[in-house]
Amino acid sequence: MAPSVILKLAAATALLASYTEAASYNGLALTPQMGWDNWNAFGCDVSEKLLLGTAQKIVDYGLRDLGYRYVVLDDCWSAGRTSNGTLQVDTTKFPNGLAHVADQLHGMGLLFGMYSSAGTYTCAQYAGSLGKEKQDADTFAGWGVDYLKYDNCYNSGQSGTSLITHDRYYAMSKALNETGRPILYSMCNWGEDYPWMWAQTIANSWRMSGDIYDSFDRPDDRCPCTTWDCALAGFHCSVMNILNKVVAFVDKGRIGSWNDMDNLEVGNGGMTDDEYKVHFSMWAILKSPLIMGTDLRAMTPATLSIYSNPAVLAVSQDPLGSPAYRVWRYPAVLDDYGQGEISLWTGSLSGGDYVVALVNAGNVSLYMNASLTDIFFDKSSTSSKGPAAEILQTWDAYDLWQNRMDNGTALAILNGNATSNGTAGTKSARYNSTLLSYADGLRQNHPALLGAKVATIQPKGALEVKVPRHGIRLYRIRSVGGGTRKRDEL
After folding, report:
1. b or e along 353-377 (b: 16 or more beta carbons within 10 Å of the residue's beta carbon)?
2. Ramachandran assignment for 29, one of left (phi > 0), alpha (psi -120 to 50 degrees), beta (any other)
3. Rounded CA gap, 178 and 91, in Å?
């Protein structure tokens, strides 16, 4: 790994360690992990060329310096086991071995993610790790792995209660820790047996639903559940399906252990630009890992500008680590799939700021409003002194999509004709978290992280805006004169 990246990562970790050490069981994932995984776009079509070529794009497009550091190799990399039971790589796909891939990624300032399953086989029927956790963890560590996505296929019936599933996944958690190598542990058990109730002490994230697919709200029989209490997680779950499941337990995600709403579909072509903005924004404010799942080699300017929005990423990576929650939800005009709703979401940010999201999942554009009474409903409902003090304050509202990178700039970056990395002290929409962490940038009020000021909400007032069909309006609000954040000059 590049020395400058190591120093920055070490500094950021040390900065947060004093108050997050106890929250993360292994000291990792102090903010939701960010990176890229091949599965959504490529499935089993994996190779050394794909991983290293994608990694170079992550660097060239400035995505590494926005925080996308994990390059995760999903299923189908294996050639089974040797005579002594050691996992071996398919040398046709990876002729130089996976340690070589890890070395190359580390040299780019990136981190290497791997895949296995807590079953006899992986989901694509390659060798799984059930019963071989210690041996496989040592193999992964020896290869220089920094991240393990651990699936749930072919689990030999070892599920059905929280304790059974906990123990099956704990075996790998313990084995990874015993290697002595820091390896982020991403459980992928699809929400079976309620991992949000017990996984915080053994994993850095847990999948809370069946697999996502590239649809905003289309129902699919293969994703049969619409609520969190689900006996069959399934797959082909839409963005709105997943949102309406996780809403019941958003509070279970916390520093070091996050609700994983599955990889991002942005760029795969199944949704509109507005729908992708909803998808990306909601994953960010609910503190899901942000793992890109598209072919970066064929990325459009619009896709790059969504993944590269530092004002939204700053909410995801906010050091407070507090997921947003839904304040209200109402029916709206139904679309062709019989779906339609509107909702208000809000959440606390560091320094006394708040994030506010107005989501229109209805079939027509409409005006929506977020009143201070609604935004601070929880504070009022738990107070014995009447309405929350925040309702009586004045708030500035910053639109987190207003400064989105324009397509011309994004195209120049994709074509290699423009610098991809912002500098820590500029007001451009680019940002470099390698030079200045999100935590430090927020403390310094870096303009790229704040969005554009578009309104002031008066005491007892409301923010009223037009929200497009299947769209979102996303804001950071900040108290005028009454906030806790120090206004440092850049």
Report:
1. bbbbbbbbbbbeeeebebbbbbbbb
2. left
3. 28
Q: What would the two tokens of residue 360 be?
A: 């229109």
Among candidate residues 33, 72, 66, the one with its CA nearest the CA of residue 51: 72
pLDDT at 212 exceeding the cut of 80: yes
Residue 394 pLDDT exceeds 90: yes
Structure tokens at 13: 């970790």
Taking 60 as the threshold, does the pLDDT of residue 252 lie above it? yes
Q: At what angle do helices 273-285 and 239-246 cross, to 10 degrees?
A: 20
**Per-residue confidence band for 267, with pLDDT thresholds at 50, 70 and 90:** very high
Q: Decide: 463 and 356 in contact? Cβ < 8 Å.
A: yes
Which pairing describes strands 34-37 and 341-348: parallel, antiparallel, or unpaired? unpaired
- Please check the confidence at residue 256 and state whether its pLDDT lies above 60: yes
Concerning whether 90 is annotated as a catalytic residue, the answer is no
The CA distance from 118 to 130, in Å, is 5
DSSP state of 190: T
Count CA atoms within 13 Å of residue 24 on its CB side: 27
Among 211, 260, 318, 396, the one annotated catalytic: 211
Contact 326, 344 (CB under 8 A): yes
CA dihedral (473, 476, 479, 481) positive or negative: negative
The one-letter code for the residue type at 182 is: P
Q: Read off the pLDDT of residues 169-180 as tens digits, 9 standing for 90 and up.
A: 999 999 999 999
Annotated active-site residue 193? The verdict is no
Residue type, 239: V
List CB contacts of 23: < 8 A, sequence separation 6 or more: 30, 254, 255, 256, 257, 321
Burial degree of 350 (CB within 10 A; 0-12, 13-18, 19+): middle
Q: Report which secondary-structure segment, H or E, holds 395.
A: strand 395-399
What single-letter DSSP state applies at residue 237? Answer: B
User: Annotated catalytic residue: which of 74, 151, 193, 396?
Assistant: 151
How many other β-carbons are positioned within 10 Å of the β-carbon of residue 88? 14
Phi-psi region of 390 (alpha: psi -120 to 50; beta: other; left: phi over 0): alpha
Q: Is residue 10 predicted with pLDDT exceeding 90? A: no
d(CA 305, CA 318): 20
Q: What is the mean pLDDT of residues 357-361?
A: 98
